[in-house]
Design a protein that fits this description.
alpha/beta, Rossmann fold, six-stranded mixed beta sheet, 6 helices, 6 strands, binds guanosine-5'-triphosphate, binds magnesium ion, Interferon-induced protein 44-like, P-loop_NTPase
Length: about 280
């Protein structure tokens, strides 16, 4: 009776819903929300325990650390620069050794200092962790060459760090070098002891979207969430401490959608830092 099952057309595999009904992080992209973020950062006041809020940016070579700082500075100076993207460092895409050679302090404003570092070098696990501990404890002066940090016997006056940001490109999220994972594990172990909060900043989100408008649904993308969940678990960082962004890399002008994600990232870092300052 009836046709044999072989004559039925093959049923397509059910496709997973590409978008989650609820985003895993709420970001509002209105003009109002953007302005509020700008104001929140401009009016930031550290806890009275600290004179400035100090954020340390870490990550492997070429993950986008310096670009993040440049991108945020362009965003915060939007009016003054007429929306142009500022570029303060010559970058070499695909470089194996770090372009950034010294501990460089950038001020977002009078109250916010952000410290740029050289990318992790894989074969130097132990020295990397010792150097980073010194920086976090405020024992390294700005401008010091990374190669000189362990050679110096004199204790230097630096700024104590209130929030550490680990930068990872979404490219590398799925196939991190095992040597790099060991560096991260050792580092995160050390950081847990100091109780300094750690945020995970995932860069190169532009590689996941076709057009700028698509950034708005980034936190509803099932595939993105899965990728990042794996990464966060491996790094022992909670998903509430993960931020996904795209830096300005070839754009001449800033754009409010990317800008909202960048400012949201900074606002989250400032909040984490302030909670730590309260307990200092
Ligand atoms: N497409 C894309 N390119 C990016 C992004 N962030 C950075 N880049 C590019 O990646 C390259 C490296 O970026 P940097 O910001 O210099 O990386 P870094 O982490 O400071 O690297 P080191 O200082 O060498 O350790 C540059 O060519 C950037 O333009 C991003 O979000 N998307
Ligand atoms: Mg750099």
């Amino acid at each position: 009776m009836g046709g044999s099952s072989s004559s039925e057309p093959p049923r397509p595999e059910p496709k997973p819903e590409p978008l989650l009904p609820i985003p895993w992080r709420e970001v509002e992209f209105s003009d109002y929300a953007y302005k509020k973020l700008q104001e929140e950062i401009k009016n930031h006041q550290p806890h009275p325990n600290a004179s400035t809020t100090n954020i340390l940016i870490l990550g492997s070579v070429g993950s986008g650390k310096s670009s993040f700082i440049n991108s945020v500075r362009s965003e915060l100076r939007r009016e003054e620069l007429n929306g142009r993207v500022q570029n303060i460092q010559a970058v070499r895409p695909g470089a194996q050794t770090s372009v950034t050679q010294r501990l460089k302090c950038h001020k977002f404003n009078d109250k916010i200092k952000i410290f740029d570092t050289a990318g992790f070098e894989l074969e130097k696990t132990v020295t990397t962790t010792i150097i980073l501990k010194k920086i976090i404890d405020g024992e390294v002066a700005e401008g010091t060459k990374f190669d000189d940090i362990l050679k110096t016997k004199i204790k230097m006056e630096g700024d104590k760090i209130h929030c550490v940001v680990l930068v990872i490109s979404i490219y590398n999220a799925e196939n991190l070098d095992p040597a790099l994972i060991r560096v991260y594990e050792e580092f995160i172990g050390m950081l847990t002891e100091t109780e300094v909060p750690c945020q995970l900043l995932v860069t190169f989100a532009d590689k996941l979207v076709e057009k700028t408008e698509d950034f708005k649904s980034l936190y509803r993308r099932r595939d993105v969430k899965q990728k990042i969940e794996k990464l966060a678990k491996m790094m022992r960082i909670s998903m509430s401490n993960v931020i996904v962004i795209s830096n300005y890399f070839e754009e001449m002008k800033i754009n409010q959608i990317k800008g909202t994600l960048l400012l949201e990232a900074v606002a989250q870092m400032l909040t984490a830092a302030k909670v730590f300052q309260e307990r200092m």
